[in-house]
Amino acid sequence: MYVSPNKNKAKTLTIAVTGLNANDNPGPGLAVIRALRSGFGENLRIIGLAYETLEPAVYLRDEVNKTYRIPYPTAGVEALKERIKQIQVLENIDVLIPNFDAELYNFIKIESDLLALGISTFLPTHKQMEQRDKVNLKVFGDENNFNVPADAMIFRETEINNAAEKFGFPLVIKGKFYDAYTVHNLGDAYMAFHKLNAKWGLPIIVQKFIKGTEINIAGLGDGKGNTLSVIPMRKLYITEKGKAWAGITIEDEKLIKMAKDFANVTDWKGGFELEIMRADSGDLYIIEVNPRFPAWIYLSAAAGQNQPKALVNLALGNVVEEFKNYQTGKMFIRYAWDNIVDVEDFQKLSAFGEL
Amino acid sequence: MRLKANIATSENGFIFNPATGDSFTSNGLAAEILTLMKLGETEAEIKHKILAKYEVESIQLERDWDDYMQQLREANLLDL
Q1: Residue B8's domain spans which residues?
Q2: CA–CA distance, B80 with B76 (Å, rounded to integer)
Q3: Which end of chain B is more exposed for a tag (fewer CB within 10 A), N or C?
Q4: What would the pLDDT profile of A136-188 be if each residue is shown by its tens digit?
Q5: Does the structural domain A211-333 have CATH classification 3.30.470.20?
Q6: Is 70 exceeded by the pLDDT of residue A21?
Q7: Is pTM beyond 0.95 here?
Q8: pLDDT tens, B31-55?
Q9: Phi and psi dihedrals of A129, rounded to 5?
Q10: Are A329 and B18 an interchain contact pair (Cβ–Cβ within 8 Å)?
Q11: How near does any CA of chain B get to the CA of A281, in Å?
Q12: Which of the residues A213, A248, A249, A254 would you substitute to probe the B interface, choosing the one with the greatest number of B C-beta atoms within 10 Å?
């Protein structure tokens, strides 16, 4: 018997993805992987990069082919570089997509080292990261004609008193990187301050509460001021942590213009998410800008604009045309599902740092 | 009074506003009125059809019509 090689078979694309914590405050990794699988089909190998052994997507073996643990961002860039180098020898990664805000600074720092290893990325710059940082967002908004709720950076709990007097209740108390609490009195505000300080450190951001409808926009910027894709989504079901558990794509020129304006003034490179509050007056406020894809990004693929696939193509230097249309009324409804795993798998990842 | 151009309606009375993501359900007659509004029929034409088809007094129809239009307005479904 003779078996000839299939010359039509394309080279396997290997993409490394972080953010595998598909929990109640989910990282975007699994949604990114799902979009990539739906966009690239076969010949795709997904390498999961995990910080913790209980990140749920690690154990979804149909989605993630192989997972490696990587050092926490606090370990620094050298540790990260060294670990990626080890992994690259084994995996030959083509593109790496980081999905956590807190890790992005390090990945941006080692961007050229990654490229030297043959790993392409498509990341924002440190300057772009700073511009949209929670502590700078109000100034950024004022300078570029975006409505951003008034806020204050605080380092002591007693400073909440001044903010409360200025903004009134309710107030939104936000952590430096993640998490936010809407509070209705000083007692709850103090409690939120200490919880966030313990988890993410100082400063804490106290933001004026805007009553309205919560909308998120997922976008992809080409780094030259152009937006290649914009998908606005209205949150339909919101968890206690303020995360969308269900949402629906909507059409609104104002929202699309806002995303395009944002990418234009920042020359944004890569995926981003604008968290918007549409006030009862109809005014749009930017509540937050996330420098990466959101956890609901698979909806972009379902609605006709596969942003993760487009980002991979941009990273590889391929031409990506601007998406023009998407389907409105496309919904996502998240669900929780118990994956059954043998302890051997857990042990492998714990002991050897890979699975 | 005109229904906003982008409002989607179905025969079973489901209404979807793609600009806001809001959705509503309505009964059979309300759905019928929406369909006629979408076809561009005037208020007078629609009322005439309802009076011809259903056993309803004109004064009752006027009251119900105003009430329904108010609901559509509050739901942000009408072009004002």
Answers
A1: 2-75
A2: 9
A3: C
A4: 999 999 999 999 999 999 999 889 999 999 999 999 999 987 888 999 999 99
A5: yes
A6: yes
A7: no
A8: 899 989 988 899 999 999 999 999 9
A9: -60, -45
A10: yes
A11: 13
A12: A248
Best interface-test mutation with B: which of A235, A251, A256 has the largest number of B CBs within 10 A? A251
DSSP string, A302-333: HTT--HHHHHHHHHTT---PPP----TT-EEE
Nearest-CA distance from B3 to chain A in Å? 17
Q: How confident is the model at residue B1 (pLDDT cuts 50, 70, 90)?
A: confident
Question: What is the per-residue pLDDT for A280?
Answer: 87
User: What angle do helix axes B43-53 and B58-74 make, rounded to 10 degrees?
Assistant: 130
| Ranges of each domain in chain A | 13-122+338-352, 151-208, 211-333
pLDDT of residue A179: 85
In the predicted structure, residue A8 carries a pLDDT above the cut 70: no
- Tell the CATH topology of A13-122+338-352: Rossmann fold (3.40.50)
Lookup result for tokens 């007094």: B57
Distance from CA of A331 to the nearest CA of B (A): 10
Domain-located, residue B80: no
- Cβ atoms of residues A308 and A39 within 8 Å: yes
CA distance linking residue A91 with residue A95, whole number of Å: 11
Q: Which CATH number fits domain A151-208: 3.40.190.10, 3.30.1490.20, 3.40.50.720, 3.30.230.10?
A: 3.30.1490.20
Residue in chain B lying closest to A255 (CA): B19
pLDDT of A253-309, one tens digit each?
999 999 999 999 999 999 999 999 999 889 999 999 999 999 999 999 999 999 999
Do residue B21 and residue A251 have CB atoms under 8 angstroms apart? no
Beta carbons of B21 and A250 less than 8 Å apart: yes
- In a mutational test of the A interface, the residue from B20, B24, B80 whose CB has the highest number of chain A CBs within 10 Å is B20
Nearest residue to A104 (alpha-carbon basis) of A92, A114, A94: A114
d(CA A223, CA B9): 40
Q: Give me the number of domains chain B comprises.
A: 1
Q: Is residue B49 part of a domain?
A: yes
Asked whether the beta carbons of residue A250 and residue B16 sit closer than 8 angstroms, the reply is no
